[in-house]
Amino acid sequence: MSVLVDDLVLVSVDDHLVEPPDMFERHVPPKFRDRAPRIEEQKGAQVWVFEGKVMRNIGLAATVGRPREDLGLEPNRFEQMRAGCYNVDARVQDMNANGTFASLCFPTMPGIHGALFSAVEDRTIGLVMLQAYNDWYVDEWVGAHPTRFIPLAQIPYWAPELAADEVRRMARKGCRAFNFCQNVSAMGFPSIHDRHWDPLFTAVCDEGGVLTVHLGTSGKPMFNSLDTPCSGYMAMVNIDMASFACDVIFSPVLQRFPQLRIAMSEGGIGWIPFFLERCKWIHERHSIWAHDDLGGRTPLEVFRQHFLTCFIDDPCGIEMRHKIGIDLISWECDYPHSDTTWPESPEFLARQLDGLPSDEIEKITHRNALRFFGSDLLEQVDREHATVKALRAKAAGLDLRAPSAEGMTGPPKAEKRQLLVSDIMYQMMGA
Question: Model confidence over 201-219: pLDDT tens digits?
């Protein structure tokens, strides 16, 4: 069928937020307030500082609204970003302008997988600030517009029992999504296969929750050298998610926790059919001597039972959707990162979905996401108020531009050379 853009209902399972400077003020107990993360001025940039660690807002994480020719390793200041990056009311207006009904937002300051709080020596402080972060996220970010967001909580990696407690605490607040990473062993903790994590997985399953695993959290370089062109690195980064998926499919974890569900975020989908065929081949040829035990299931059956995938722009994946599993595919906007299709996401998506049956379009655009995360948001809002047409009507006349790039810091715009991975590392380290 021909896709009618105005009639689409869009739920993005992968967006991001830039934490506002005052986020800890109302959620940290007074006796710990002087230890909370804070914004400081350094070399013309605004950076977060916490327990001696410096976290920078690299520009590609907040370039939304900027013409492609103006993209670079800035902005480094809040006034250089669209307010929708860090202000929830402005974010909802930007969602309206894009026709996005609901969104799940990953963190920036503590790392995409929230690992900052687990990297400080003082575990008491780490837990206090992690819980303050979660309370701010659910009470203020999601709480300001509860029918527009799927809440996501961070966990303390250093103690699975504490992580389980935090899962249950946040579940009582209505949160069912819990951030994890591709490779916890790279953080210095036991691997995902170790029973060390059983308390966490038990809590997630008991609460009907989902582990969200975002690309870029494997803790290993995905480039051969610092001279690798940035584009070469970015072109293959999604495929790194295959190593995580393969790790889990053949792990005994899913035999011990048959209810465990995992959302792979920003990983794309085009690589999955080949990946599943390769898993099938390996299982059939090598499972006897390798002593694999998938509980009598095939790798494809394991994948389809436990995983949710998502894409931004992936015509190849859509073409092979039935080899993946139509019930496993969801959509993402990736606002406000440089990959985002905002504010034209409905048009980008409609071109890929053109010709698909209506039920498949519904699953990909929103039903799979809401089902997987156990969300009833669409039941709380009449469908007619959740469509692209209805939402865009609310944002009529909204200025879609980012603030002027004038005065921004970073590599000179006039310098016409290919950017390398080392340039990103240089900017991140604040050199």
Answer: 999 999 999 999 999 898 8
Straight-line distance from the first to the last Cα atom of the chain, in angstroms, rounded to the nearest whole number: 53
The length of the chain in residues reads 431
The residue ranges of every structural domain in the chain are 5-428
Stretch 318-323: mean pLDDT, rounded?
97
Rg (CA), the chain: 21
Q: Count CB neighbours of 411 within 10 A.
A: 14
Alpha helices in 157-197 (DSSP H): 160-171
160-171 helix and 123-136 helix, angle to the nearest 10 degrees: 20
pLDDT of residue 429: 47
CA–CA dist 122, 127 (Å, integer): 9
Cβ pair 123, 163 in contact under 8 A: no
Whether the Cβ atoms of residue 112 and residue 65 lie closer than 8 Å to each other: no
Of 182, 185, 192, 258, nearest to 213 by C-alpha is: 182
* DSSP 3-state of 381: coil
The torsion region of residue 254 among left (phi > 0), alpha (psi -120 to 50) and beta comes to alpha
Give me the pLDDT at residue 240, please. 87
Strands 329-331 and 100-106, sheet pairing:
unpaired
Q: Is 263 helix (H, G, I), strand (E, B) or coil?
A: strand
Number of other CB atoms surrounding residue 257 within 10 Å: 16
Asked if residues 113 and 149 have their Cβ atoms less than 8 Å apart, the reply is: no
Residues 127 and 117 sit within 8 Å (Cβ to Cβ): yes
- Taking Cα atoms as reference points, which of 343, 333, 187 lies closest to residue 266? 333
Each residue's pLDDT tens digit, 29-70:
999 999 999 999 988 889 999 999 998 876 678 889 988 877
In this prediction, residues 333-341 reach a mean pLDDT of: 95
Q: In angstroms, rounded to a whole number, what is the distance separating the alpha carbons of residues 292 and 287?
A: 5
What's the whole-model pTM score? 0.94
* DSSP-H helix ranges across 265-331: 272-290, 299-306, 315-319, 321-324
* Domain 5-428 top-level CATH class: alpha beta
Q: Is 349 within 8 Å of 315 (Cβ atoms)?
A: no
